[in-house]
C-alpha cells in the first residue's frame, strides 16, 4: 500500500482521510512494514465500507488485514440502527463465527512429550477433519433448530462437555437473536452430519506449549505458566454458515438496490438493520454463531475424551473461546454517548477490556483473553483486551497472522510432504487429511505473526500475555 495516500497518526495507526462520499475516515492499525505489504485492495475496501449508512467513528483494518470478500479480512465497522445503519454479509464472511478455543491440560512439556505421538494419532483418528468431513452425530431438523437457538448450551445439555465450559465461552455459549426459521432448509441439510468436525482450510487442532510469558499477572489469572501444554482448536460453522452467507448474498443485494444504498462492490451486499432483509439475515447469522459455538463445544468433548484416555493424570479446562467472523449487538461509547451498535468483525477478534461483568471472574481485572492463531510452524499468542482498545476499535484486535499469499500460490510453491518433513525437523508433528491442504497452509504463506501481534500490542488494541509454540498439529 502506498504510504503517501495515508496520514500517519503514530507508528501503529494510519488514517485514510475522509474525502468525497466517505462518511468517516479509514483507520489501519499496523506497523509501517505491515502497511506497505498490504495490497491496495485493502485500502479500497476500507474506503468502500466507510460509505455505508450509519457507520460510526471509522472504517477500520487490523494489523493482519488483507483483501477479503466485501470487507477486508481484518475489517471492523460498527453501525447505528438509529442512524439508518446497515448489516452486511460481507462484514461477517462465509465462515460465520469461525473462532479459536484454547484448553489447559494441567501438564507440562516434559510430561506430554513421551506420549505426544500417541496423542496426535488418537486426535487424527477420532476427531473428524477434512473437506466434507462428517461426524458420528446425526441431527434431525428439530434438533438443528434447537442447536441454532442455544449453541454450546444445547451441546452441554446433550452431554457434550461440562457446564463450567460455558463460563469460559464468549456470550456464555449462546447469542440472542437467532431465528432458525430464517436459516434455509439447504443450510440445515448441510449441517446434519457436520457437528463435531474441524473442516479444512486454515482450521486445525493443535497441541502447544507456553514458551514465553510477557504479562505475569494476566498469565497467572488465566492459569498459564512457562512450559504448560495447551490444546487449541480453530474452526467455525461449517457448511451451514457458508450456506447462510450464500443465501444472504441474494436477499441483501436485492435490498441494497431497493433502498438505493451507496455500494460500490456487490460483495458488500447490505440492508438496513431494521429492514425485513436485515432482520432476516441477523436472525440466520446469529443461528450460525450458535452453530459454531456448539461445534467447538462438541469438539472440546472429543478432545477431552482422547486426552484423558492418553493422559488420565491430566485434565481439559477451557481457557477461553472467542470468535472472529461475527456481527453482534454491543454497547459502546461514541462521542461521550452510549450507543447500541451492530459491530461487524470480519477476521477480527473481540477484545474486551477489564471490568466487563460478562467475563469470568478471574479475568475481569486483566481483560478478556484474546486468542491469536499463528501457523503450524511458528507461534500463536494469548493477549488480553484493554481499555484503550475499547475506545480505539470497539474492543477489537487482529485474529491471526494473515495470509501473505493465496492458497493457489502456496500450492505452486510447496508440496505437502515437504512441509511435513520441514516441520518435523523443527519438532512439530503434523497429521493431515490432505497433502494439498497442508501445502496451502505452509507457514511461509502467512505474514509474521509476531510482527502482527506486536503491532496490535503497540497500537493498544490488546496486550501480550503469552506466546505458545506448536508441538503437534492435526489439519484437515
Question: Could you please describe the fold and organization of this structure?
Answer:
- By secondary structure, the chain is α+β, with helices and mostly antiparallel strands.
- The chain is 34% helix and 25% strand.
- The strands form 4 sheets. Strands 7, 8, 9, 11, 15, 16, 18 and 19 form an 8-stranded mixed sheet that branches. The protein has a 7-stranded mixed sheet with strand order 1-2-3-4-5-13-12, with helices on both faces. It has a two-stranded antiparallel ribbon with strand order 6-10.
- The radius of gyration is 21 Å and the shape is globular.
- The two termini are 33 Å apart.
- The model has no long low-confidence stretch (mean pLDDT 95).
**Cα gyration radius (Å):** 21 Å
Average pLDDT value? 95
Just give the CATH class.
Alpha Beta
CATH architecture: Alpha-Beta Complex
Number of domains: 1
Layout of strands and helices, then pairs:
Elements: E1 7-10, E2 13-16, E3 26-28, H1 32-37, H2 40-50, E4 59-66, E5 73-79, E6 86-88, E7 99-108, H3 109-112, H4 116-126, H5 141-157, H6 163-167, H7 185-190, E8 204-213, H8 216-222, E9 228-235, H9 238-258, E10 270-272, H10 276-310, E11 317-323, E12 325-334, E13 337-346, E14 349-350, E15 369-372, E16 380-385, H11 387-393, E17 396-397, H12 407-413, H13 416-425, E18 429-432, H14 435-440, H15 449-458, E19 462-475
Parallel strand pairs: 3-4, 18-19
Antiparallel strand pairs: 1-2, 2-3, 4-5, 5-13, 6-10, 7-9, 7-11, 8-9, 8-19, 12-13, 14-17, 15-16, 16-19
